[in-house]
Every structure is written in structure tokens, then in C-alpha cells.
Amino acid sequence: METMPSPTPPKKLNPKPHDGTDAELSKLGNNLVTKFHVLMRISQIYDSKNVALNQFINEFLETVNTLIKENGVLSLKIIKDDFFLNEQRLRYSVEGFTSFKYLSTQWKKRLIGEVIFKTLMGEESLRYFIYAFINLEEGREENADLLKKQLESHQITSIDVNPSEIIEGEEEAFTLEKEDHREVGKKIFFETIGTIKEVITNIKGNQYADIRKLKRLAQKAIHLVIEDESILLGMTMIKNYDEYTFNHSVNVSIYSLAMGKRLGFSKKILTELGITALLHDIGKSKIPREVLNKPASLSGEEWEMMKKHPLMGVEIVLNLKQLGEINPRMVVGVFDHHLMNDLSGYPRLFLKKEVSLFGRIIQIADSYDAMTTPRIYKKIPYTPEQALAVMLREKEVHFDPLLLKIFIGLVGIYPLGSLVLLNTHEIGIVYKSNHDPQWLDRPIVLLVDRDTEGGATKELIDLTDTDRAGNYKWSIVKTLDPYKYHIDIAKYFL
Ligand SMILES: [Fe+2]
Ligand SMILES: [Fe+2]
């Protein structure tokens, strides 16, 4: 008996992009976006004949041609904020975030929505295409047509472009820029504060505290710190003294991670360091609120109680089962964080020992954050610069001099968040330190100004910039006290 052939489903004319699960395509897609991003950036720096470009062109070509060989054609398309590779939506990781955002911003600015590579590509056509692309005028509606014509006039028929699809209410989408990267930072920062608050509250009430979420957040923070530490470092300027303990734990963790990164720690060790720093004061959850928040100095008895928090912290950490395998580094780090370099701190030891590396790192981060945060008993804190001066005076006795040097490299000679007067009589806030150690005194500065409606404007200047004669355009004359100028530094970092 013959069976009836099952009817073939009608072919959709315009298949809707779907969330595919093709891991390989997704990996290649991420690779493609990253390479496209790098190539666009490089071509904005060098002219099309520059040899520095060759390597990046070839790397991009390799990815493009691999994809074409496998799929016959390569279409990269943006719909809203998502990229689709041959109709499959590409998911991106935190590491890929910069590339995705950069590319989507650049495409949207030029109103290009899709690029199709139809046949195997050669070096020359790709080079021509990239320069034609970056030279498109921003916001011009005919860009896709113009680009097509330009390609045709150069006998390049292997590339096709389409304009971006205008979606209602999305016109302002191309103003994304780096702000989104900052959004990720903000999310991690505030979520971690919320989570550490939950953990501390549960431990206080002798309830089950789930710290797996804390671990996940620490891992996300590490990705971001590795990519651009300045975003999370900037968040440490948000000092909230009602929620001191939570805010403080997160800040200490950010500083510690940034130091760990500079020390070349692996991601695994960084995760351990991040969690240890988040939990360094967990022992305080067993100290009564009245003692912790006492506006006056502590009595002898209260001080003795306070000094027990590192040891109580060790006990708590050892009981946190979900930490999985607890590395001794973490436990010792909590125990050591007030020992001081010469062991003059607490707890008092019967036997001499070396302060652990985690302990020494956290101690620097801890002291700096504590000094620069307003507290109930010290409403006007040290400025970042004053805090560093105190720490430098106490170096060798209290801190590991080498680590302190690394920390200063991190926050700069003019630490992040310092209010500074420039030789142009403008006032600015130190926003980001320059990575090159020779420019520790020439950070990136945010000019403090107001627009016509009185809102704070955000103009970033790089103090290494020079004029035509080779003179620096701006230099720091001195630091200023933000409290005297009634400037809320934190606002500029949000
Ligand atoms: Fe502490
Ligand atoms: Fe602390």
C-alpha cells in the first residue's frame, strides 16, 4: 500500500529571525562582530594604505570567508539592539559587550542595517568597503544607496548593504554609546550591594544565607574589571553612609579586584579574592548595631568586641557550605584584614606570621574606602588625596609598600574622584587614571560645568593631549576640597 506523501510546509517568504541554538554559528558570529569592531576602529586611526591594517583585514577576511564557505552567504543585520547572523540572533557575553555596542552605535549613526557578503571576499574589496563605510556621513538617509553605488563603481559586486529598519520610537537609539557599558556596571554594583545586604541580614538572623548569587556577581564584576576597570572604580565614589557596611564591602571588593588584575591573578583567584573582599567584614554581623553605629568613641569593652570581627568572620565563612571548596586563602584573608604589616593590629597573635597576600590587599582597599567615606562619627571624610597621604605616611608599618604602590597606580597620584583646578581656571573631577605609569599625573578629567538649564554637563578631557606646538592643553594646578565647593562627586560617576 502506498502512503500519501506528507505535504511540504509552505515556504515563508520572509522568515522571521529566530533564536537559533547553533553554538558554532554563534561563536563565529561573536568573532565576526569583534573583528568588525576592531577593524572599524583601526581604520579610523590609519589611512587605507597603512601596513598596520593588514593583519586586521586578514583576520576579518578569515572569519568572513569561513562563514561564507559554510553557509554560502553571510548576512549581518541589526534589528533594534540585536545582531542577527544569517537570521540567527547573536547572544553576547560581557566580554563581547564593547564590540556589540560599538558596532551597533556606528551602524545606527550611519543608518546602515544590514551588510551582506555574497561570495568569498578578497583583501582589496574589503579594504575599500571599510573605508567607504566609515566615511559615510552620520544620519544621512541615503547612505545605504550611496554605499552601494560606490561599491558598484569599483566593480565590487560581492557586498550588498541595506538601510536600517526604522522602528517607531527608536529614533534616538543611536545615542547609545558607552553609556550602556556603564549601565552594566551600575547593575552589577547595585545588585551586589542588594545581595550582600541579604546575606548579612540572614546571617544576623541565623538564617540560611545563599551566597551563590554573590559568586555569580563577583564573576560578572571580574569580566567588567578586566575589560574596563574605570567603570566599577568610578562607582566606589557613591558613598552611602546609611548603608555603610554593604557599600563598603562592595567598594573593597572592587579595589581588591582591580589590584588583583594588576598582579596578574587568574580568573579563579580573582573570584576567590572578590568573594573574600565582599565577606571581609561579615563578622560584624554578630556585633550589635549600637556598637557599630556609635557616634562617640567606643568603650574598652565595646572595642574588644569590635576587634573580634575578623575571627567571627572566619567562623561564618567556614560555615558557608555553598562556597563549595573553601580555599584557605579566603579564610586567612578574612582573618588577616586588620593585622597590619607589622602585626600591630588585631587579632593579637601568639606566634609571628606573615600577613597573607589577600589580607594585605584587602587591608589597603579597606583603609582607603573607610577613610574616604563619611561615617556617623566623622561626617566629613578625607579627600582621596588626603587618604593616600595618610597611607603613604604609614607605609611599611601598616601596609605592604609594594602593594600600596600598585594601589596608587590604580587610583592615581590624583586619585579617582579628586576635584582639581586646571591651569585654564576650569574645575574638573579626576575620572579615570591613565594606564601608562608615566602619566600618573595626567589622568582623564571630567570638566565640571553646567548647561543652560543648570544640569551638569559631562565633557571628558585627556590631560595628555597637546596642542600643535606640543604643549599640554591642560594641567592640574592643585586639588580642591569638594565639600567647600558643594560638589557631589558621586553624581558625576552615575
Ligand atoms: Fe574589618
Ligand atoms: Fe572593612
What do you see in this structure?
With 494 residues, the chain is of the alpha+beta class. It is 46% helix and 11% strand. It has helices at residues 23-45, 54-71, 97-109, 123-134, 143-153, 179-204, 212-235, 244-262, 267-278, 289-292, 300-306, 309-319, 328-336, 357-371, 384-393, 401-411; strands at 74-79, 82-85, 88-89, 112-117, 159-163, 419-422, 427-432, 444-450, 456-462, 476-480. The strands form two sheets. It has a five-stranded antiparallel sheet with strand order 3-2-1-4-5. The chain has a five-stranded antiparallel sheet with strand order 9-8-7-6-10, with no helix packed on it. The chain is globular, with a radius of gyration of 27 Å. It starts with 22 loop residues before the first helix and ends in a 14-residue tail after the last strand. Mean pLDDT is 83; it is low at 1-21 and 168-177. The structure holds fe (ii) ion (FE2) (2 copies). One fe (ii) ion is lined by residues 280-281, 309, 337-338.
Short structural summary:
With 494 residues, this protein is an alpha+beta fold.
Q: Spatial order of the strands in the main sheet? A: 3-2-1-4-5
- Helix fraction bin: 40-55%
Unreliable sequence segments:
1-21, 168-177
Secondary-structure element series: HHEEEHEHHEHHHHHHHHHHHEEEEE
Strand content: 5-15%
Number of helices: 16
Q: Pairing-aware structural class of the strands and helices?
A: alpha+beta
| Average pLDDT score | 83
- Compounds present? fe (ii) ion
Number of strands: 10
